[in-house]
Design a protein that fits this description.
The complex is a heterotrimer of chains A (363), B (166) and C (406).
Chain A: H1 2-29, H2 43-72, H3 78-117, H4 122-133, H5 154-157, H6 160-168, H7 170-173, H8 191-194, H9 198-211, H10 218-226, E1 237-238, E2 241-242, H11 249-270, H12 280-283, H13 286-294, H14 296-299, H15 312-326, H16 330-359
Antiparallel strand pairs in A: 1-2
Helix pairs in contact in A: 2-3, 3-6, 4-9, 6-9, 10-15
Chain B: H1 2-31, H2 35-39, E1 43-46, E2 55-60, E3 63-69, E4 81-83, E5 86-92, E6 103-105, E7 110-112, E8 119-121, E9 126-128, E10 140-143, E11 146-149, H3 154-162
Antiparallel strand pairs in B: 1-11, 2-3, 3-5, 4-5, 6-7, 7-8, 8-9, 10-11
Chain C: H1 13-20, H2 22-31, E1 34-36, H3 45-64, H4 74-85, H5 89-116, H6 125-147, H7 152-163, H8 173-180, H9 187-217, H10 231-239, E2 248-250, H11 251-276, H12 306-312, H13 317-329, H14 334-337, H15 351-371, H16 376-401
Classes of the chains: A mainly alpha (363), B alpha+beta (166), C mainly alpha (406).
């Protein structure tokens, strides 16, 4: 009995340490981010904009307090007064802008929702879709920072609401509008001048959802959604797609230079070269990955990574692919694990019986 | 009683040995060549540009491979590899004595190994010195004018059955 | 001159006895190495440590075959070659990573057992000191091994820990650069820590293990009551088959049979961690390649270093370093700070039992606080816990001085 008491003490303190340094410490280090189950209706964006309003209000309060403080001191230097006054003005402007963003986002996503309700004309949609092909031509030429993706299967890959929003205003849809003074500056911003009516958007998306569909393997889903910006060196995938086999070193180097050029363009557009995703599946927790891909701003506020608008099903495919590359031992681990544990359970039972036979005459 | 004691100890020992065997298997697998090494075990050579009586040496799995297009006056041999109407010697370029690389002497149409003086004719058969057997023919496949080293094609299998590859 | 039986068959028992005295060796180290009978499963921690060290060596050998100690290649040689190309490479890596973490849990249990049962004094001082030397060498081994995958945590841990050698206001920048062989952790640094990890430190550890075992042979293992046993008398009884009356058992096979049972239980837990819960020992942040231009948002040592890290953190630079140094060496002095001559379990030693549990709780508090972000309340608690830890030692001196003799 005494041994069980001692064991209980040891187990208790061990678990205490474990809970303290693992679940508890991590809950304190990372703010919890709520996912939206890959529904793109603007809820998250409006929440975010509201939070910014709250924060700006707080900053404004502080600036005002500081101003009162400076004013209350007799003979406070003129420059302090000016500084405090400027700070207040700055925060007032920021607040006005933040409030405007909230209104703008609300009306934008309300508009997206209403477009989704419109009756569609597929034939008109097909005609308007021709506009897209001018850039999305499959030539693999970088335009404004990235190579415009192939559109053949986007109806299967992306969410319908997201596609509507994307044609309406690409920067707003991908939640990177903070990067642009005018969202027309987005590499795909010109679509806003080319497709102007809500009905036209509805028709194009209707056409896409009906005709631009197809079965996507995990690798294909990943390559179409992520590889414009991210490389995966363990799978020999670069921003230019799969790396071919070269017999001559000269050809291999020439290809490498092409990759470096493309990476330089992506880097110029994104601010820094997006990370290689080879090991990402082990470097981030599943929850982080999911919420990050759904809406990058939630986990990394201010990041230049756009929201890509994957459906839940296709996110799972992306995850599967990243697991195949970054954690290829998972199937083997899961297959062997139970046998090893079983082995040691039997081992322990046999060892117990041996111990019992050895200790039989001792007491 | 003491027999029961021994029995449990031995049962435990035997069971642990099973686990040991499993661990040894895992260790053995860790020593195996990597998949990337195995995948690199195939080399393709284009034979269309080959010239008669000029030795071409290719590297395959780290070893030199002799490729010699035979001229008309060289005697035919069952070890000849036919590509269209051309006859080729295809062999691992390591002397069957102790593994040095023989040099080809085009005027005498023989391979001469400088290490211990072994000689082979243009069909790769040993003709002088210590080598105990002809130059070894590596697994190959003929695909048009392409030679794929590392893969067993029908010509190679036929030679293997005839017992002439080494 | 020894007598050699000329008629003994080569490699027969007699032949080997003449040359190696195998029967004597077996008797001294195994069948007549007497261990007290009055023990509990905590006495198995030594053999569990030996087994875990064995696992570390074996898995390490297989990792060594494909690891490349080069700042440009290390990360991929671990995460690509070993994890996805080498047959069962992932298994060796997970065993190695989990064992490196769990071995410290067992070391701490082993140490605290020694403290609880007063197994560090009256002839057992060298066991304690050699054990502490092993603890310090294992720490160095763990740290150097942590550098090898060359991920973000490796790099930044290397940066921060080597900076400690600057010595605060002493500003020994030269020393830091000498340790690194570079201005920052780089290729030279990785190579020398690789050498330490796979050669020099393992050699030292093996030597210390031999020393640790040797220092145990004469004073013998302690028992649950701290009773001074007449081992010769007890051994005589055992050999006369009066096993019930004897207070001892032979190391082999009786003591070992219990050790192996406890080991079995431990291995179930161990391999559960290897297959299903390895993230605690293989920090996800370290799966980002080392980047000297970007510090991760949160950096923290592995859990087993957290308590001493937390003693460093709440103080200003210089006092922090001094406190840290004290934390590193103070346990060595335990046999000499404890002034009482009692060898008994803590619950029979009056105030000592309170001291013991306060120490345990304080070290756990330091461990948890060491991982939390140093902000607000956590900072205050950390400072309090660190000060308590430092005060524990003069307090121990006083309470043991006035401890009643049992």
């Amino acid at each position: 009995m005494r041994e069980f008491k001692i064991l209980a003490v040891v187990v208790f303190f061990t678990l205490l340490v474990y809970v303290g340094v693992e679940p508890f410490a991590h809950s304190q280090m990372h703010a919890h981010v709520e996912g939206h189950d890959f529904v793109y209706d603007g809820t998250a964006d409006i929440e975010e904009a509201n939070t910014r309003v709250e924060k700006t209000k707080e900053a404004l309060e502080k600036a005002k307090e500081r101003l009162t403080e400076v004013q209350s001191i007799e003979n406070s230097p003129q420059e302090d007064l000016v500084k405090a006054q400027d700070a207040v003005t700055k925060q007032e402007n920021a607040l006005a802008k933040a409030e405007e963003t909230v209104t703008h986002k609300k009306s934008f996503w309300a508009n997206v929702a209403s477009i989704a309700q419109l009756d569609v004309n597929i034939t008109n949609g097909e005609m308007s879709f021709g506009t897209c092909i001018a850039c999305h031509n499959g030539a693999g030429i970088n335009m404004g920072g990235v190579i415009p993706p192939n559109l053949d299967r986007i109806g299967s890959l992306y969410d319908k609401n997201y596609l509507i929003a994307l044609i309406k205003d690409p920067a707003m849809a991908s939640n990177v509008d903070h990067k642009y003074a005018n969202t027309m500056m987005h590499p795909m911003g010109s679509v806003m001048a080319m497709v102007t009516s809500d009905q036209q958007i509805a028709d194009i998306v209707g056409y896409i959802m009906q005709n631009k569909v197809g079965e996507l393997e995990p690798k294909a889903a990943f390559e179409e959604a992520c590889v414009r910006c991210h490389a995966v060196r363990y799978a020999k995938v670069t921003q230019l797609g799969d790396t071919p086999e070269f017999k001559e070193e000269k050809d291999a180097l020439a290809h490498k230079i092409k990759v470096l050029d493309e990476q330089a363009l992506v880097e110029a557009y994104m601010g820094k070269l997006p990370p290689d995703l080879s090991m990402m599946i082990r470097a981030r927790s599943p929850h982080y990955m999911e919420t990050f891909v759904e809406n990058p701003q939630t986990q990394l506020p201010g990041t230049s990574m756009p929201r890509v608008g994957l459906t839940k099903e296709n996110y799972e495919k992306v995850k599967t692919y990243l697991e195949e590359v970054g954690d290829p031992s998972k199937p083997a681990r899961e297959a062997i694990g139970p046998w090893v544990i079983l082995f040691f359970v039997v081992f322990t039972i046999l060892a117990y019986l041996w111990k019992k036979s050895q200790w039989k005459d001792l007491h | 009683m003491s027999s029961r004691r021994d029995f449990m100890g031995m049962a435990l020992g035997g069971f642990s040995a099973l686990g040991g065997l499993a661990a040894l298997y895992a260790m053995k697998r860790s020593w195996d060549p990597l998949p990337s090494v195995k995948a690199a075990g195939f080399t393709t050579v284009d034979l269309s540009g080959a010239q008669e009586n000029v030795l071409n040496v290719e590297k395959w799995r780290g070893k030199p491979i002799f490729i010699l297009k035979k001229s008309a006056d060289m005697p035919a041999d069952e070890r000849d590899v036919l590509v269209g109407s051309d006859r080729f010697l295809i062999a691992i370029g390591l002397c069957t004595h102790l593994g040095c690389i023989p040099a080809y002497l085009p005027d005498q149409e023989i391979f001469h190994c400088a290490c211990h003086g072994g000689q082979f004719d243009a069909s790769g058969r040993e003709i002088f010195g210590p080598p105990p057997s002809p130059l070894v023919i590596p697994p190959f496949k003929i695909d048009g004018t392409q030679l794929v080293l590392g893969e067993e094609g029908p010509e190679y299998i036929k030679m293997k059955e005839a017992g002439v590859i080494a | 001159m020894a007598h050699f039986d000329e008629n003994a068959k080569p490699f027969s028992n007699q032949w080997l006895n003449d040359r190696l005295a195998i029967d004597t060796v077996k008797r001294v180290l195994s069948t007549e190495y007497w261990i007290p009978k009055n023990i509990n499963f905590l006495w198995a921690m030594g053999m569990i440590l030996a087994a875990t060290f064995g696992l570390l060596v074996v898995s390490g050998i297989f990792l060594l075959m494909y690891y490349k100690p080069d700042a440009n290649l290390a990360f991929d040689s671990v995460n690509y070659t070993i994890m996805s190309e080498v047959g069962f490479g992932w298994l060796w890596r997970h065993i190695h990573g989990v064992a490196a973490s769990v071995v410290f849990l067992i070391i701490y249990i082993h140490m605290l057992t020694g403290i609880y049962y007063s197994s560090y004094k009256k002839g057992r001082e060298l066991i304690w000191i050699s054990g502490m030397l092993l603890f310090v060498t294992f720490s160095a081994e763990a740290f150097s091994g942590y550098m090898l995958p060359w991920g973000q945590m490796s790099y930044w841990a290397g940066m921060v820990i080597t900076n400690l050698f600057e010595g605060g206001s002493l500003e020994l920048t030269g020393l830091v650069e000498w340790i690194r062989g570079d201005y920052v952790p780089g290729d030279a640094y990785l190579m020398r820590f690789f050498m330490l990890h796979v050669l020099l430190l393992p050699l030292v550890i093996i030597g210390l293990i031999v020393f640790h075992f040797a220092s145990l042979r004469l004073p013998h293992v302690n028992n649950q009551e701290g009773e001074e046993i007449d081992f010769e008398e007890a051994a005589r009884l055992y050999k006369e088959d009066k096993k019930k009356e004897s207070k001892v058992i032979p190391f082999n096979p009786v003591f070992l049979s219990k050790d192996i049972f406890v080991m079995g239980v431990y291995f179930i837990l161990f391999f559960f961690l290897v297959f299903y819960n390895f993230d605690f020992a293989m920090d996800p942040v370290n799966f980002d390649p080392a980047d000297g231009l970007q510090t991760p948002t949160h950096i923290y040592p592995e859990w087993y270093f957290l308590w001493s890290y937390e003693i460093l953190r709440p103080f200003p630079k210089d006092p922090g370093l001094i406190a840290f140094l004290i934390a590193q060496v103070i346990f060595f002095l335990l046999p000499f700070i404890d002034r009482s001559s009692n060898v008994a379990p803590a619950h029979k030693r009056g105030l000592f039992v309170i001291w013991f549990w306060v120490l345990v709780v304080d070290m756990i508090a330091l461990t948890v606080l060491g991982k939390l972000p140093p902000e607000g309340m956590f900072n205050t608690l950390g400072t309090v816990a660190a000060i308590i830890f430092l005060l524990m030692w003069p307090i121990l001196f006083v309470i043991t001085k006035f401890e009643k003799k049992l």
